Amino acid sequence: MANHHFGKFADVWKHLALVEVLALERPSRYAETHSGSGANAMLDDPERRFGVLRFLDVADATASLGQSRYRALLNQFGDAHSFYPGSALLAMAQLGCSASYLLCDLDPVSAGDLRAWSARLGITRCEVAQADGMMTVLSWLDDSTGPATDSQVIVHVDPFDPHSRLADGLSALDVAARLADQGYGLVYWYGYDSPDEASWAYHTLSEKTQGSLWCGDVMLVDETGAAGPGDLGRATTPGTGCGIILANVCEDTRATCQALGEALATAYAGSTLPHGTRGRVRFSVHER
Hints:
By secondary structure, the chain is an alpha/beta fold. The protein has one domain: Vaccinia Virus protein VP39 (Rossmann fold), CATH 3.40.50.150. Helix content is 38%, strand content 21%. A nine-stranded mixed β-sheet has the order 5-4-1-6-7-9-8-11-10, with helices on both faces. A two-stranded antiparallel ribbon has the order 2-3. The longest helix is centred in the N-terminal third of the chain and has 17 residues, at 9-25. The radius of gyration is 18 Å and the shape is globular. Mean pLDDT is 92; it is low at 145-149. GO terms for molecular function: 23S rRNA (adenine(2030)-N(6))-methyltransferase activity.
């Protein structure tokens, strides 16, 4: 499905962490269950001005953000003022031809754009599947051979609906738990629109798997730290948040993502939210 939320603050945190994971873990195979388009024409609206466009304004004043791989790739693609690169394009730019790719999306326009970008970058081992991403990724992994493959794979699961189920009854969270239990590298994105739901996917996934997990959760709050009911459609409403869950990554990767999350919260302190009030980002970490 085409992504209508590209370049918003949730994308900033997701892509900031994802690119760093790929740079540090260096997988030989990378898969996405819900890729979207390779890139989207940039919009200059309040959500993007708080999202990627604000990130570009504040990143270079903070060493860890300014030196991040995400910042470097945005610069490579022209500072995101003309178009915004999606997760698949960022992954291909970061890993290049050192990895093979499985990129899934049901939308034919998105699938065509992914193929065009992989060709433009000279990626020779890139399969774009216009099919259900979760089933396709599971089949792709089941076809793997050799005991070393688990540690060389990163799967990015970014579901449109985390609770919808496949024909065999599996939800996106069930798929994520299976990947974690089987030792695959996992990057799982989730969102929410109520403060009571902060870190909800981490707690749910913790009940489904015995594997080691790390979660970095970001929530927008007002300048006093208060948050009411949020709105995922308008992703900058206090009480709206999202998070990244990592499984089967090294300690250095966890520590780097935590440092980036803390730096992002610091850089956004005292921000003016799109509706005109002052706000900030609350960053929290859970791990086991």
